[in-house]
Amino acid sequence: MEAKLPDKQYFRIGEVARLTALKTSVLRFWETEFKDLCPPKSRTGQRLYKKQDIELLLEIKRLLYVEKLTIEGARKRLKATSKSHETTVCESNDVNSLLGLVKEVRQELETIRRML
Question: How many CB atoms lie within 10 A of CB 5?
C-alpha cells in the first residue's frame, strides 16, 4: 500500500493526495479528527506535509480502510502506539523546518529573478 516517497522535505496537498490515493477533502477532514496531523501552512496558505505526516496518513488509512476501525478506534490505536514512541507531529521545531523552507524558496526566487 505504501509507495516510495520522493526525496523531498515538503509535499503539497495535491501531491499527498496522489501518493496516498486519498481525496484532498479526506485529508483536510482527517486533520480535524486526528490532532497529531497538523501540517503547517505556507505564507500562501498551502499545506506543507512532511514525510512523517504522509506516514501517519497511510497508517490512518490502513486503520480505517483495512482494519475497518471507526475514527474513534483509530484515534485510540494511534494514541496507544504514540505513547510507546513518545513522538508527536506538531511541535515547536516546525518553526525551524519552515525557516529552512523559506530559505530554499528565497534562493529559487533569486535564481528566477536573475534569469529575467
Answer: 14
Pairwise CA distance, residues 36 & 34, whole Å:
6
Strands (E), 23-104: none
How far is 11 from 95, CA to CA, in rounded Å?
16
Contact 85, 78 (CB under 8 A): no
Grid cell digits, residue 91 = 511541535
| Residue 53: CB atoms within 10 Å | 23
pLDDT in tens, 9-67: 899 999 999 999 999 999 999 999 998 898 998 889 899 999 999 999 999 999 999 99
Closest among 18, 22, 58, 21 to 37, alpha carbons compared: 58
Strand partners, 41: 47
Q: Residue 112 and residue 115: Cα distance in Å, rounded?
A: 5
C-alpha cell read off for 46? 498551502
Residue 41: phi and psi, rounded to 5, are: -110, 145
